[in-house]
Design brief:
Number of helices of chain A: 0
Largest interface: A-B, 19 and 22 residues
Structural class of chain A: mainly beta
Number of helices of chain B: 0
Structural class of chain B: mainly beta
Oligomer: heterodimer
Helix content of chain A: under 10%
Radius of gyration of chain B: 13 Å
Largest sheet of chain B: 7 strands, mixed
Strand content of chain A: over 45%
Largest sheet of chain A: 6 strands, mixed
Radius of gyration of chain A: 14 Å
Chain lengths: ~120, ~110
């Protein structure tokens, strides 16, 4: 079974600074997708960024970028120029055809942004 | 387009009762997935429906069931509620299986 591990239960960053959230996963598949979701206090899950495993280029969405290391099975999220609105739980997730495309989530990292 | 809607948003039940939660997907979306979120177990996949058929199922007991209607709206049912069923139940819809999922705001179920 695929597992997704987020080793940082909590992280803190100052406004305007950069923070990196870590995620590792375990799979024997070659075709899969990786995601970072944000869950603010409202509990609405919001897709931040996604990466297809077959793409070598790291995905980027404005201030959010990933460092995808396929051989190491690592998928970290970098948030640049952190803003107060970035404070939330961040979940790393894995999805593959062999699991019927069900999202397999990590336990989450709580990000605190301080002024 | 309107987003994914879930009703009710909050629900309080007692042990032994049953509950039905509803999810209306984004217009045009035919796949609906359900997830359970608890502090202890995190986010876990329950099941996915596409074109009124269950296509995938997570590791949950038979007390958890669901269905999908011809208009793609989905319901999930939990029978003989246990305290451990207290959770946030999230629904996500997508155009087809494997496509990007859009989440609803969730239903917070409390079992007393």
């Amino acid at each position: 079974a695929q597992t997704v591990t987020q080793s940082q239960p909590e992280m803190s960053v100052q406004e305007a600074e950069t923070v990196t959230l870590s995620c590792t996963y375990d799979t024997s598949e070659s075709d899969y997708y990786l995601f970072w979701y944000k869950q603010p206090p409202s509990r609405q899950m919001i897709l931040v960024i996604r990466q297809e495993a077959y793409k070598q280029q790291n995905a980027t969405e404005n201030r959010f970028s990933v460092n995808f290391q396929k051989a190491a099975k690592s998928f970290s999220l970098k948030i640049s120029d952190s803003q107060l609105g970035d404070a939330a739980m961040y979940f790393c997730a894995y999805r593959a055809p062999d699991s019927g495309y069900a999202l397999n989530f990590g336990k989450g990292t709580s990000l605190l942004v301080t002024p | 387009k309107a987003g994914v809607t879930q009703t009710p948003r909050y629900l309080i039940k007692t042990r032994g009762q049953q509950v039905t939660l509803s999810c209306s997907p984004i217009s045009g979306h035919r796949s609906v997935s359900w997830y359970q979120q608890t502090p202890g177990q995190g986010l876990q996949f329950l099941f996915e429906y596409f074109s009124e058929t269950q296509r995938n199922k997570g590791n949950f007991p038979g007390r958890f069931s669901g269905r999908q209607f011809s208009n793609s709206r989905s319901e999930m049912n939990v029978s003989t509620l246990e305290l451990g069923d207290s959770a946030l139940y999230l629904c996500a819809s997508s155009f087809k299986q494997g496509a990007r999922q859009f989440f609803g705001p969730g239903t917070r179920l409390t079992v007393l």
